[in-house]
């Protein structure tokens, strides 16, 4: 594919994929996990933000050394080996990215329904989610340049409501005393600080996740070895600062009880209280647009999933999925599979988390647990990177990768502490998906 993207698009991939849904969608779940303990909730946002910065720094160092087709898969191949890279790419293409895309399609539809006052659990919301999923895949498959421009514009737009709430919400909260009240009020219900922190950390992980997918356009970046590292580091700091300031600002506009009751309705209520009924609604429209921007960024990466395998002659029918359309300069067949997988996981997400549970014990949150799995898959890469990068100084070779290893271990522990036995049922599904990947392993044949 051609070198069509520059630094602004790369930064907007990092910021635009991460910011735009989770900060609104997961605020409710974080407070529910901590039973209204606002300081503990902010601590969860800070911990996962630090993990994002540490891991993105290590991958930024890798990005200065390796430039091939699809960032993360390239780094897995360069550090651990070709076989491991295949399974990382398979997991990303079949489970991780389609799960995030499907969740974002539903979240975008949910906020659209809140804006119009419609039911967020019924068939209308799911129909809108399916339509958004299809339209975004069409945009990325047939007009990738326009998809990149859309990513930049929606990233700029989404920063408006976040910045306004961070500044104005905090100011209003300090004047009316609501912020101090929210921070002072602790739940009377018994809760283990560790238990609440672990559960909220896993929830926050979704809000921060997606930044690694910016590496999927590695081969399409101009001067990628300089552009991508800058985008990862700068974008990560922007995300962490924005999230924490927004979360603090939100406490100045609504009570913890209101936020725990309904995150998306409380977000709309907060903007209307601070900016008035009409202005608050207009700002909420920008939130819907920001969710669509996040969906677009994830779809942009998801469409390249099977292509990243096929160009290595891996996976099913590589000769088909490595084809690039001469008109759009896009891997259309790969995008078509992305649409099918995302639609499949959308049905699962609805059945497991909204309309169900349809799948009994196998009903898990597909927007969270695949994220933790990826942190586990980083571990061999960081270890091998420390072993092989003999030309780097000690800070970049040992200190930051070691911190990244600790961060990954913490995320895995948080998943087991927060989800318990549900993790085991998820691992059965994960094993089944990876088993299918093993069947397509061309080297095994």
Short synopsis of the structure:
It comes from Dysosmobacter welbionis. This protein is an all-alpha fold.
Brief descriptors of the model:
445 residues; mainly alpha; Amino acid/polyamine transporter I; 20 helices; globular
Write structural notes for this entry.
- The chain has 445 residues and is mostly helical.
- It has a single domain (7-439), classed as Amino acid/polyamine transporter I.
- It has 20 helices and no strands.
- It has helices at 7-18, 22-25, 27-33, 38-63, 71-79, 82-116, 123-142, 144-176, 178-184, 193-208, 224-250, 256-261, 263-275, 277-302, 305-310, 318-321, 332-353, 369-388, 394-419, 422-439.
- Helix 1 (7-18) packs across helix 14.
- The longest helix is centred in the first third of the chain and has 35 residues, at 82-116.
- The chain is globular.
- The relative contact order is 0.19.
- The model is unreliable at 187-191 (pLDDT under 50).
What does the average pLDDT come to?
Answer: 84
Question: Which CATH architecture would you pick?
Answer: Up-down Bundle
CATH class: Mainly Alpha
User: What structural class do helix, strand and pairing data support?
Assistant: mainly alpha
**What is the number of beta strands?**
0
Count, helices:
20
- Weakly predicted, low-confidence segments: 187-191
Would you identify the CATH H-level superfamily?
Amino acid/polyamine transporter I
Proportion of residues in extended strands: under 5%
Order of helices and strands: HHHHHHHHHHHHHHHHHHHH
Q: What portion of residues is helical?
A: over 70%
Main sheet: strands, sense, barrel: none
Shape: globular
CATH topology: the name is Amino acid/polyamine transporter I
């Amino acid at each position: 594919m051609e070198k069509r993207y520059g630094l602004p698009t790369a930064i907007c991939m990092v910021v635009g994929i991460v910011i735009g849904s989770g900060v609104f969608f997961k605020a409710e779940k974080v407070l529910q996990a901590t039973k209204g303990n606002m300081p503990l909730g902010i601590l969860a946002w800070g911990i996962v933000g630090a993990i994002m910065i540490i891991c993105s720094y290590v991958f930024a160092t890798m990005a200065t050394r390796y430039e091939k087709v699809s960032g993360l898969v390239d780094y897995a191949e360069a550090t651990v080996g070709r076989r491991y890279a295949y399974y990382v790419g398979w997991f990303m293409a079949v489970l991780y990215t389609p799960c995030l895309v499907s969740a974002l399609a539903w979240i975008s539809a949910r906020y659209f329904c809140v804006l119009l006052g419609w039911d967020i659990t019924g068939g209308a919301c799911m129909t809108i989610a399916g339509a958004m999923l299809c339209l975004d895949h069409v945009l990325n498959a047939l007009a990738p340049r326009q998809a990149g421009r859309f990513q930049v514009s929606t990233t700029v737009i989404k920063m408006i409501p976040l910045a306004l709430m961070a500044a104005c919400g905090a100011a209003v909260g300090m004047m009316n005393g609501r912020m101090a009240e929210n921070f002072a009020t602790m739940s009377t219900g018994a809760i283990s600080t560790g238990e609440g922190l672990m559960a909220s950390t896993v929830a926050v992980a979704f809000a921060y996740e997606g930044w690694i997918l910016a590496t999927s356009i590695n081969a399409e970046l101009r001067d990628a070895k300089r552009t991508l590292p800058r985008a990862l580091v700068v974008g990560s700091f922007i995300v962490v600062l924005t999230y924490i300031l927004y979360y603090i600002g939100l406490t100045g506009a609504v009570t913890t009880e209101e936020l725990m009751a309904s995150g998306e309705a409380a977000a709309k209520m907060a903007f209307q209280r601070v900016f008035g009924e009409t202005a608050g609604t207009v700002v909420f429209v920008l939130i819907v647009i920001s969710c669509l921007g996040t969906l677009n960024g994830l779809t942009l990466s998801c469409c390249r999933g099977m292509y990243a395998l096929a160009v290595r002659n891996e996976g099913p029918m590589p000769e088909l999925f490595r084809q690039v359309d001469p008109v759009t300069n896009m891997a259309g067949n790969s995008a078509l599979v992305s649409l099918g997988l995302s639609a499949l996981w959308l049905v699962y997400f609805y059945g497991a988390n909204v309309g169900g549970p349809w799948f009994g014990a196998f009903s898990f949150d597909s927007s969270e647990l695949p994220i933790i799995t990826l942190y586990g898959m980083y571990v061999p890469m960081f270890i091998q990177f420390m072993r092989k990068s003999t030309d780097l100084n000690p800070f970049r070779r040992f200190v930051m990768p070691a911190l990244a290893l600790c961060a990954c271990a913490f995320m895995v522990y948080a998943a087991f502490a927060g989800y318990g036995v549900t993790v085991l049922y998820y691992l059965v599904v994960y094993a089944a998906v990876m088993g299918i990947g093993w069947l397509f392993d061309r080297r095994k044949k």
